[in-house]
C-alpha cells in the first residue's frame, strides 16, 4: 500500500451490483486533530479507521495518543487496512489492519510518540488478498 497525493474517493470495480464498490468519508472530531474515516461497500458501512492525536481527545474513550486503529464490521470478505505517517518524511509510521480476522474485528491501537504538531496523513483501504481499493489521503496540518 502506498501513500500518494491522489484524491481517489471510490474504488474501482465493474458495473455489477454484486461487485464491491468502496467509498470513504471522513468525520473530523471536535479538536480537528483526531478523526474517523468511514468505509462503505456498496453504500453499506463496512468499517472505520480511527486516528487519535492525543490521549483523551474524545470524551468516554481511553484511546492513546498518536494512535491508529481499524474496525471491520461487515462480513463481506474484505478487510480494512490503514496507514498513518508523517508528511514529508518525518518520523512516525503506523499500520493497523484487520487482515486475517473475520468481521466483526477491532484491531489493537498502533501507537508511539510522534513530535507535537507533526503533520500526519492517513490512508485507508479495503483489502482482500492482493486486491485493494483505497480512499483519499486525509491529512492533518
Rg from alpha-carbon coordinates:
14 Å
Beta-strand content:
35-45%
Low-confidence stretches: 1-17
Cα shape: globular
3D architecture notes:
The protein is mainly beta and 141 residues long. Helices cover 0% and strands 43% of the residues. The chain has strands at 22-28, 35-41, 44-52, 67-72, 79-86, 93-97, 105-106, 120-128, 131-134, 138-140. Residues 1-17 have low confidence and may be disordered.
Set out the fold topology.
Elements: E1 22-28, E2 35-41, E3 44-52, E4 67-72, E5 79-86, E6 93-97, E7 105-106, E8 120-128, E9 131-134, E10 138-140
Antiparallel strand pairs: 1-2, 2-3, 3-4, 4-7, 5-6, 5-8, 8-9, 8-10
Key terms:
141 residues; mainly beta; 0% helix
Short description:
It contains no helices and ten strands. With 141 residues, it is mainly beta.
Amino acid at each position: 500500500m502506498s501513500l500518494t497525493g491522489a484524491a481517489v474517493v471510490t474504488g474501482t470495480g465493474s458495473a455489477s451490483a454484486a461487485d464491491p464498490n468502496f467509498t470513504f468519508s471522513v468525520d473530523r472530531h471536535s479538536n480537528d486533530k483526531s478523526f474517523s474515516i468511514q468505509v462503505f461497500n456498496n453504500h453499506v458501512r463496512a468499517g472505520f479507521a480511527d486516528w487519535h492525536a492525543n490521549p483523551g481527545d474524545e470524551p468516554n474513550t481511553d484511546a492513546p495518543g498518536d494512535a491508529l486503529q481499524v474496525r471491520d464490521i461487515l462480513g463481506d470478505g474484505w478487510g480494512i487496512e490503514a496507514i498513518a505517517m508523517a508528511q514529508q518524511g518525518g518520523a512516525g509510521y503506523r499500520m493497523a489492519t484487520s487482515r486475517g480476522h473475520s468481521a466483526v474485528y477491532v484491531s489493537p491501537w498502533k501507537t508511539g510518540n510522534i513530535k507535537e504538531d507533526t503533520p500526519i496523513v492517513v490512508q485507508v483501504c479495503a483489502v482482500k488478498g492482493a486486491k485493494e481499493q483505497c480512499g483519499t489521503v486525509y491529512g492533518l496540518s
